[in-house]
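Can you make up a protein sequence with its backbone structure tokens?

===
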Amino acid sequence: MSCMEKLYHLLENARMHNLTQSVLSFGRQRCMLETEAFLLSNATGRVLDVGGGTNRYGHIFKNNYFVLGDLNTAYVSYAKQKDARLNAVVFDATRMPFKKGFFDTIISVGLFHHMSDSDVCRSIDECLAILALNGKLVFIDAFLPHSRYDFIVWFLAKIDRGRYMRALPNFLKVIETKNRSIRFKQIENSYPWNLVGFVINNVEKD
């Protein structure tokens, strides 16, 4: 097992994952505030966090009906230990155990660069199926830098656990269809992570 594989395996532990997230967030409070503001400003009603890990963003939805979901059982167990009242479910982001139209908002942060193109499409389709009409899929992800000389961002992309880090134009080609209303914007102060936020409205199809 390589050093990187050992590191990735270590990060499957919920406490190590949490510690790493805290360390990487040090000195980046403005980026965190921008991320939270983007999520909160687009969220209403019942909220589902897909790939929510150890529940980093649940605190901003204290006035909403909120559900945390993740594929990693250890992350979900850890989150429930920290908050016994938390609604938390283990599931695959391409097969979600919820009724159609149940949620008003679905959020996700840093999920899709861990998924292949086909799984991204399946996950988005699944999200739209369980969103209410005019509900919103709100997500943020990291992307490759625009410049080949931005070595810091390239290095971070190389060591990231996500195997599918993409350039933004390539990702847009994956998710754009004629029946989707998509907005996106750069998350301010996110360098060197090159974060972009997206909103897909679940509008009625023609």
Q: What stands out?
A: Residues 6-11 have pLDDT under 50 and may be disordered. The longest helix spans residues 117-130. DSSP finds seven helices and seven strands in the chain.
